[in-house]
Amino acid sequence: GLRTGQEYLDAIKVRNKAEIYVLGKEVKDVTTNPFLKPSVLAFKATFDAPWEEDTKDLARAWSPFINEEVNRFNHIHRSREDLAAKVKLLRKISHKVGACFQRCVGFDALNTLYITTELMAQHGKTEPKEKFVEYLKTVQKKDLALAGAMTDAKGVRTLKPSQQPNKDAYVRITEVTKDGIYVSGAKANITGVAASEEIVVLPTRAMGPEDQDYAVAFAVPTDTEGIKIVVGRQLNDARRLEGGDIDSIPYFYNHEGLVIFDNVFIPMERVFLMRDWEYTNQLVEIFAAYHRQGYGGCKAGLGDVIIGASYNLAKQMGVEKASHIQDKITEEIFLTETMYSAGIAASLNGIEVCPGCFWVNPMHANVTKHLVTRFPSQISQLAIDIAGGIVGTAPSEWDLKNPKLKEYIAKYLQGVEGYTAEDRIRMTRLIENVALGVAFQIESVHGAGSPAAQRIMFSRLYDLSYSEEVAKRLAGMKSDVHFKNSAEPWRLSETEKLASKTQKTKD
Ligand code: SF4
Ligand code: FE
Q1: N- or C-end of the chain: fewer Cβ atoms within 10 A?
Q2: ipTM of the predicted structure?
Q3: CATH number of the domain at 292-458, please?
Q4: Neighbours of ion ligand 2 (CB under 5 A)
């Protein structure tokens, strides 16, 4: 049930059938490719976590499915504490990698399929759950590295999948045989996919009956014939090819890729949704909330990295006691802890949607992600403010290493004694790479759904008419308020509506 980081690396190294492209060239070994190596190392941190003293309790969980200890990233949440442990683990791993470690999407996809197939079973369709639990057991036993793939290419945004001029704008079933299905289409912006062993594919939006060929969920090994992965570019990425140990991101990073399915065969036992359009609405809601909750952990962890870097750079320049600097660092702390608080609230107010299976609180999870669409850019702005213009102008490590320049750089980049010019450049690069990187800036806005998607959820979940009746009553107007048993004026989510067992405190 538990692999080590090294075992993961060994497995991913020989997974050489996968068709992966970086900068237009096919990559055979992702563990040594300079472009992908930082990403593989960040993914690996999730396999190291169960073996490291400070993370082992958070990273291990007991699976009743295989009666063994498993890596939390392949665990099905059994309690609200499990949900909170996820957020805490994510914050801690961010401290070790300073980037997105990419394994949570697969984690959330597993939990989403567990609840979805359970709800299908409750409504009389038992086969998907049986197939899914078998798959889950394999994943847990082998401790597989999963990528989750949800976002489709999408084509014309105003048109439904079946109305698209490009029939493959959303991943779809092209043929059904007695042994399995054939799928075509593409999933976009897929986190960590080149570092994964399997891809769990979910539909990206609610589908109607006319879109049933697009209502498909399955799991597929990453190196299956017909799958092509095109890894995306990132800011400063060519530095990785320079081979340095300061500028080149020699440590950790993440990647996203376009995953193309060109008539890929999926055996029937790995197909969990097949034209089951009636369940896509809930599925999307469940997944989105799970991933939005997680951001309260990983992005808070990146906030900590930036806070630490801001503070250290202030010390290097001798300004750490200046009141405006202290105030900016305090603000960074406030913003970071706010994101985390929301993630913890989403966990501890989680909902038991099926016996023994726990979903996050959808309102708090959406709030968490919405904070994350705003706060990281504010934290980064404060860090740049504290660090100074050097974030945009620092000499390269090659200048520092040039014998003709070395002495001058050492002399003119040093601030307070005890810190060197190299310290200054290293910390500056960390701010540049983390504060302005994909994981903290771009993924924070669009990952797990763009800002508008959360706002739609707020208006769906919040019962405005209830609050209005409360206000009318207090204002002395005629009101027919019927006080709820719960403090929150929330409506039931689609998932809770479908679940036979819903939280008692709601009505
Ligand atoms: Fe995990 Fe955060 Fe990366 Fe999503 S963005 S995969 S939650 S580390
Ligand atoms: Fe993400």
Answers
A1: C
A2: 0.99
A3: 1.20.140.10
A4: 447
